[in-house]
Amino acid sequence: MNKAEFVDRIAARTGDRTAAKEVVDVAIDEIQRAVVKGEKVSFAGFGVFEKRQRAARMARNPRTGEAVKVKKTVVPAFRPGTGFKELVTGKRKAGRAATAKKTAPPAKKTAAKKSTKKAAKKTTRAASTATRSVATKRVAGTKKAAKTTAKKAAAKKAPTRRAAATKTTAKKAPARKAAKKGRR
């Protein structure tokens, strides 16, 4: 999963893509700033982001095999928490967080008006979708009824056609036999 897919998943649960993108960007930025300062960023059950010091050491060049001195360095590191480890290993099942979104009180009156308009649109969409699905079920039900009656009618007509076909062949058979005898 990349960043865009991550934002899409958050937006699917919260309902607002722009807010989800902003939250992800701010969270990543704040984690990076804290780690650069040398602080540990810890999320209970998830893990710890930290800055690690690596000491100077001797290493080998894989091509030539000669010894190379590596200077001391600082690297970012992530240590997974026990809860995260248990999820990955399968010792614990992942539970979904509540999908109900928590809304903060609006800062401006225009924001409140926009949120009520959005809520009204969502309820209107939900109602029209429900109406469409009921209508679709009704139409589907009438189509099924029409298909079954058509099949029954075809089944009734089929034996009469077969019977008529056997009657005509039975009538034609003696005439054919007579014609064959006359030819010989």
UniProtKB/TrEMBL annotation:
Residues 110-124, 140-160, 169-184 have a biased composition (Basic residues). The keyword Lyase does not apply. CDD domains: HU. SUPFAM superfamilies: IHF-like DNA-binding proteins. GO terms for biological process: chromosome condensation. GO terms for cellular component: cytosol. Keywords: DNA condensation, DNA-binding. Residues 96-109, 125-139 have a biased composition (Low complexity). PROSITE patterns: HISTONE_LIKE. The keyword Cell cycle does not apply. Residues 90-184 are annotated as: Disordered. One of its GO terms (molecular function) is DNA binding. PANTHER family: DNA-BINDING PROTEIN HU (PTHR33175), DNA-BINDING PROTEIN HU-BETA (PTHR33175:SF3). Belongs to the bacterial histone-like protein family. This is HU family DNA-binding protein. It comes from Glycomyces buryatensis.
